[in-house]
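Backbone shape codes:
===
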Amino acid sequence: MSLYLSFQLLLILSATISIGLLGYALRYRYVPGALAFVLIIAGEGIWTIGYFAELRAELLIGKIVWDNIQFIGVDLAAIGTLVFALVYTHQDMLLRRFGALLGIEPIANILLVWTDPAHHLVRIAPQLDTAGAFPALVYSYGPWMWVMIAHAYLLIAVTLALLVRESLDNQRLYRRQILAITLGLVVPLIGSFITVAGLVPIAGMESLDLTPITFAIANPILAWGVFRYRLLNLAPVARHRVVEQMADGVIVLDRNGRIADINPAACTTLKVAPGVLIGQPTEQVFADWAELIVRYRDVESVREELTVAYQGVSHYIDLQISPLTDRRSRVTGRLIVWHDITERKRAELELVRQTLQLERQTLALQQAKDAAEAASRAKSAFLSSMSHELRTPLTAILGYTELIETDLGEGETDQIGGDIARIKTSGEHLLGLISSVLDYSKIEAGKLVLDLTTFAIADLMDELATLARPLVEHQGNRLVVECPPAIGTMHADIIRTRQILLNLLSNAAKFTRQGQVTLRASRSVGVDGVSIVFEVIDTGIGMDTEQIGQLFQEFMQIDLSSEYHQGGTGLGLALSRQLCRLMGGDIVVVSQLHVGSTFTAIIPAHVAESADLAQTLRSST
């Protein structure tokens, strides 16, 4: 493999490392100095890729264009290097004051480079040299080229000076970080100097620019600093700045117990100016806390929580005393740090109080839950037992009634047959009431399934009138049925619809005397589509607001006068509303005491197929 090809492979390796470092650095873009590091790596990447493209270009114009692009990378890398050093060494306040000035020279560079054919301040007599190992772009440096070189070297020199000074003041980890950065700068600097001085020691490749190639060495060094020494995770911090900005009180005592240093937070606590206490003995400074002075006078290391009074208020503090030693491990003083934990202590006490209260409430809720579950189990057991006990004899009665009706149908006793038919009808109705109890149990268990069919509403109204008329007229009432002939059909569960309306009619008949019960059907068009509105209107005793609020509660018997007390399970209206909601509708009631009530059942004209009963009921409640 030729040396020329090897150089190209090194450029590819360098560009690959630059891209990897760039992606990694962007993840830490909010860390101080990370964006400047991004500028450095981006500049090196542009420089490297541009030089690789220049080597691969065959025409002079192509090589000049790619050479122009490289100058963008040069400026980014140079500016990014200085900015990174300023941030890394905590001189970033200079950036806020003079940062805009750093952009003047790069902008001028870009303008002059791309307009060079008009003035030749950057390149003098650029030409394509084919005499060497590869076609190379060669030219003499114009006056502005020397300005750019001097400017770049100056920025790097300032950067190196800042890093060297910082290394003298920092710990071992940070010194290794600085070493990685320094080597990452010095290696390309050497390559640049060799190129600019025309000292490339390779025959036939004297025009080769070694700087982008040296990035193949510098970038692994920077990667070593980034990953091995967490360059972008840990940056050196000026410890004095941290201490000055700490909210905790910090005092440094010498071996004689005199104050050698104190931070502003401690001065605020003691209500004194910072310079006043330097050199003062602790007995004088902390005269109000003489007991503590005696207690900790000879203590070199301790951490305790104390209660002290200052500024007229008791405070909880976390006190920490640590020894200060020299290189021979001899104690030269003590570091005292205290942190006010009053708010934390109060929060802890409040947390304990709330925890106890929560435990009491949890116990009460658990007891209520147990009671509710016990009641629910008892109710379910009652419903199941009662339903089965009543359904068995009723089924037998209806069976025998059918047999008698069949036998009588063959004779001439028409009157007796009619009476028996009415007995059958009443028995079926009674069986329906008992079945409603089982229906309610199925609804609670989420097992009730609708049987949707299309039926004529007028036929349903006629059937309801036939079934309800004996109940209504039994109390001396008059049943009025209002149904438009052209009301049409609806797609719903006819059995459940009949059950809902019979419940409402039965309820109206129970609480109306010598009055009128009206059953009305109409078609309504709303935002949710077409609905069938069934109204049951009575002129009975009515209800007040409190009674209406209890009306649809399971097993709830409204407290009415004994004259109208009719007994029952208390499930009729609750079951009717649940069935109505199951079909996508609802029941509403309007009532006025001593005037009457209007129950309105609204059911979609086309009930959608229901797949999840439990979800339907949850969404409607």
In short: The first strand starts at residue 123 and ends at 129. The chain has four domains: 3-228, 239-340, 354-423, 449-620. The chain has 20 helices and 14 strands.
